[in-house]
Batch of 3 targets.
Target 1
Amino acid sequence: MQVGIAGLGRMGAGMARRLARSGHQVVAWNRHMDVAHEVAAEPENEGRVAAAEGIESFAAQLGAKRHVIISVPAGQATDDLIHQLADALSPGDVIVDAGNSNFRDSQRRAAELEARGVEWLDMGVSGGIWGLKIGFCAMLGGKREVFDGFEPAVRDLAPEGGYLYCGPAGAGHYVKMVHNGIEYGIMQAYGEGFDILHASDYDLDLAAVARMWQQGSVIRSWLLELAGDAFAREGNDLEAIKGWVADSGEGRWTVQDAIDHDVPAPVITLSLIQRFRSRREPDSFTDRVLAALRNEFGGHAIRSSDDKSS
């Protein structure tokens, strides 16, 4: 099928490439057009990506019943792009928000677009910078019939069994929000565990420990594999990495929703608070592990240990 992708950052560019290499026709737009031209020119895409100059050209190059994936930062940038697209699209066309948006914003946007005849899907996406190679796990919300029309694309975006229709508008981003809250807790546990190993009286090879645990251990996971990669590349002390850990919003929203529903979530809540602490106190080894992991799976920027800013 033909799919438009607006926003070619780490995730958007990977989705454009994966769709094209799966045989779909992609029209790509980015605020800085050099990225769109770069993706379009890649021989692996076999001429299946067309770069569009401007939103009007972008919409015009898409055929009837347009499906447009947007992948831009959550918040005002998403609202601005949706408004631009809504002016250029026709009734029955579909906007798919693949950003890390708040599920309540997705509910609002779906209602606003419905009043204009434009359809909506929210698509929470996990996979980070590895999505091109292994697939993007996708959680979708919106009308079931709209999801059905988009399913040929999401089937090829995701690894086998790695996508789910979750329910009405907002449900996809809600499931992704809780996914990220869980991720906070798992990462914190790994960070603390490796901190204990690092502080012990034994001269342990942390990369070797991580790789051994990957072989049949009950705590094996992709995050653990990435921790091993970080130790192997950066060294046992992760000394070049500053333990300054950002949060991109989903952990806060998960904690707030837990409070709203009277659900005790101490592990996720404390994991979020520990990220706040990392920005005020001298960096700990636990925080270095978290910063390294965020870079490994998502390409999130890390601060050098020489960086003195708070």
Target 2
Amino acid sequence: MTEQCDIGLIGLAVMGQNLILNMADHGFQVAAYNRTTGKVDEFLAGPAQGKSIFGCFSPEELVKHLKRPRRIMMMVKAGEPVGQTINQFAPLLEAGDIMIDGGNSYYTDTEQRIGELQSQGILYLGTGISGGEEGARHGPSIMPGGTPEAWNDVKPIFQAIAAKVGPNNDIPCCEWVGPGGAGHYVKMVHNGIEYGDMQLICEAYSLLKDGLGLSNEELYDIFTQWNKGELDSYLIEITRDIFSVVDPETNNGLVDMVLDKAGQKGTGKWTSQLALDLGVPTTLITEAVFARCLSALKDARLRASQVLGGPADAIESFRDSVDRDTFIEWVRQALYASKISSYAQGFAQLRAASGEYDWGLKYGELAMLWRGGCIIRAAFLERIKDAFDKEPQLENLMLDAYFQKAIESSQTGWRSAVSTAVRIGIPIPAISAALAYYDGYRCKRLPHNLLQAQRDYFGAHTYERIDKEGVFHSDWLGLRREPE
């Protein structure tokens, strides 16, 4: 069997295996390779048995069994492992062959690799893939970017295996994103929004459980109802499911037995760092990253809890006085409005990056890429697509008529939930940041005239005026009034 496989895939961890099985289910011949070749044997004897999958035990063997132009997809850890894999395989390839990085690589690494391989005539794609193990197996969201000439050669495979949406379930959640590192940048922002979504849900959970004192059974019922309305999404759905699981060892809710110490892999942090580079206030995602960092300080928090006080008896007083159903609705409104604010920030960052790097991103299409298969899939992404279809260069998602109205109708609950959390001492950094972003964005005049005056006073940094053009500096010390 030579030159018969449609694509080769390197890396047989769960994601790689599931993508291969997905490709085979859709009629593609796949060559599979792993650096530890024992995994190839295990895969062939297990899930791949009887399928159109060919196991390879060396780079040379994999290359030999691929149709031209050869398509090789890497599902290996980002960073140095990707570089090592490229160095191993690139010398075996010819001009016109294609290498694909399907991991969470940093977008500038992808751009550097495109340039390095270009001299050999090798085409390179940096492709974001979302959906976890289940998505990889049954239909992920795929965000391809890189060398445009490579897209048509991988499009039939990627769009076949991607999740499908639309009235007839025939629109693939996979479309060309843009050149250079666009695919990996879009996936990074997707992950940043995911950080924000998860943190928002956790804060809503804390308000209901710690504030209102609801049981997991009650939370299950609430999230079941929420998933039937505006908040319909994968993350709300799995949160509902989590509340139903009982720990077989203790007979308690399993979620209550999980240590409150969150991990992260870095893409949320990258989103925040790059937002700062662009001057884009992606505040909610940044607060979500910091919230995970704070959760990791478990031992320090345990010590602090013994000495740092909050509002005394506030939660008990709140529970005695609040109308339960009214507060639940406030939390729902706060969660929905904050979610809109989060996506508005994410798309604002994509808009800024697209302008900075000349990627030509199509924001409505990006919303549809995330409509199915991925972790942040949600019904309201259809509304985001509609907003950008009406105004492709929409400056901010909150300016769309639908989202304006949605936020307006949620403001009472949003503000009430935030003020209640502050009053009774429950931390909700992401929901608070979402509201602060909204209030700041809609504010005609912010207090930063004073900030500029301070900067000019101590550092002669200059300022602009509201009444005439130009840049000015004043002798604040000489003009000041001496205190009596």
Target 3
Amino acid sequence: MLKLDAITVQFGGLTALKGVSLAIGAEEVVGLVGPNGAGKTTLFNVISGLARPSGGEVFFNRDNVLKAPMYKRARMGIGRTFQIPQPMHELTVRQNLLVAQRFGTGKVNLEKIEEILTFLHLEGKADRDAAQDLSLSELKALEVGKALATDPQLLLLDEVLAGLETASKRAFMKTLTELHQKYRISILIIEHDIETISSLCRRVCVLNYGQLIADGTPQEVFSNPEVIKSYTGGGA
């Protein structure tokens, strides 16, 4: 489904990613972890088309999408959330989903929007101001809903659990598990909490200083000495 081949990203004299190669298969749920500044969100930006790599190739369903703009990648099946929820101001929750759907699919499917609202338990807030009337967990759910509205085959979740209290985090984890079961899409999720990633994912990839240093099961990865070092003093 997704194949990254030797992705390098440079910002001036800073190398944010260095030769990262990674593949995600159909219906996989993969965790992407690493210290702050390791290059995780930059990698998401490359995959979704928000950032252009300095070197390397991006393939999606065997098509080279390196030159495809963000909206075309969305219409090909790449959906994403952002670390900080970004509801569209002065629009209702439902309208936010509709705008995202039109951007990602080029059309409107009201039945799909209502399905997403119900699935994410947002139907009671559907006509409320998305920027003013939602709790943090509801804002996070809206971010996921906007991505789902684009009918993705691959969903990129950027720290969607960050900032949630324990009970809310557990409830959201359950929702993500149900999402995967219901929509059968691939998921690549950035998350700092090792317990959360180990629970959600059968495979974990680790970035440090812009390089992929581990790729395997949670048990393999989190017992890897290089990974342990990156979290205890070797990270960026």
